[in-house]
UniProtKB/TrEMBL annotation:
Family designation: Belongs to the SAM50/omp85 family.
Protein name: Sorting and assembly machinery component 50 homolog, like
Localization in the cell: Mitochondrion outer membrane
InterPro entries: Bac_surfAg_D15, D15-like
Region annotation Disordered: where it falls in the sequence: 1-38
A Pfam family: Omp85
Native species: Cyclopterus lumpus
Keywords assigned: Membrane, Mitochondrion, Mitochondrion outer membrane, Transmembrane, Transmembrane beta strand
Statement: the UniProt record of this protein carries the keyword Membrane: yes
Domain Bacterial surface antigen (D15): 158-462
GO BP terms: mitochondrial respiratory chain complex assembly; protein insertion into mitochondrial outer membrane
Membrane topology, as annotated: Multi-pass membrane protein
GO cellular component: mitochondrial outer membrane
Amino acid sequence: MGTVHAKSLDPLPMHGRDLGVHPDDLVEPPEPEQESKQEILENKDGHFCVCSRDVMSHVNGLGRTKEDLLGYEISEVFHAKNLIDVMKKSHIARQRLLRLGIFKEVEVLIDTSEGSDALPNGLDVTFEVTEVKRLTGSYNTMVGNNEGSMVLGVKLPNTFGRAEKLTFQFSYGTKETSYGLSFFKPQPGHFDRNLTLNMYKVTGQFPWSSLKETDRGGSAEFNFPLGMTNHTLKWEGVWRELGCLARSASFAVREESGHSLKSALSHTVSIDSRNSAIFPSRGALLRINQELAGYTGGDASFLKEDFELQLNRRLFWDSVLSASLWGGMLCPIGRQPSCIADRFYLGGPTSVRGFGMYSIGPQSEGDYLGGEAYWAGGLHLYTPLPFRPGKGGFGDLFRTHFFLNAGNLCNLNYGDGPRAHLQKLAECLRWSYGAGIVLRLGNIARLELNYCVPMGVQSGDR
């Protein structure tokens, strides 16, 4: 009967008696575009059918998913002009359905129309779907930022039938314990445009500052694309409780102890053309974030700006050159000084290698207090392992790593001009260089083993 069973766009025959298509028919003279009218012909339990002028589409295997959501995701199939176009748009529709996170499997069947309701010279496109379970759980461990944690999670995917997701997560770590409830709601037909609501309690320990912090709060976050950019608008309200981690905490940290209420609006814009977030070999990233606290209430008032820039370029012998630059500034509003929990911190394997974790900049009696302005940059060269052991297999997960890092963290006198600010940021420059080996752990993390030589060490740096 001539059925095409495709999970991807693999090369397929361009002719065949059963499909009724001749190679010469695939290139058609341009015709005036007609409006593709869609009509729901059948809507039974587990089956959804939509028909246009030349294509009839079926979705089998539905349970709790609403039909209007599927209509948005597969609508492009009805604008196809020939068989190849139908195959391409069906593949795109399959990817869109999988992206929703509500189907375990999606298979596509393309066939000629048959039966009493068959379309003349038409095609039937059938999506065979398998929905995920109503309730799923997970257990995993996470390692990062010099700490480990055990994470337990419960998810209710497709909560109301339109790709919503309700998530509860509990994390018990070596330095912090947290739990949170999250609700995710995408706009039908525009998955990248979504709303997330969060309620949480987070307890963290920060030994470099002899500080312990407990946050209880909620947030609302709206994500949307605009042209080549992605935007995030966020409101967060949090009740913060700061305390001393040890009896030896400095007086400056003890002064910061107590309760505070922070209500902040923030906006983030990003452009990301990298081919990988973990091990990019080409592309660039630009991320700019602004945060305004105090305008919607609370006793924390400040304006905070920070940015991240990364450029990657492939060189000879499968080597990659990567350059990164970060920077930020925090400006208190009113006479109240900034809070230790809102300032920037610098140092460690994620910024300036060779220095202790967040152990650069202003400090008091060995406790690091953070700064209101910072910058950091890095130049990295990644090359294959010498003599390419395990080429084409396990050896490709490893890279030789040469790096040069630099940065500075300080407090500014906002009565001075921009030139004085730049001069102060350029003073007391910390930098380091070294080499090592990097291991890629799938597409979720990377493990580095480096030998670092810190330079420009100032009094009080660790």
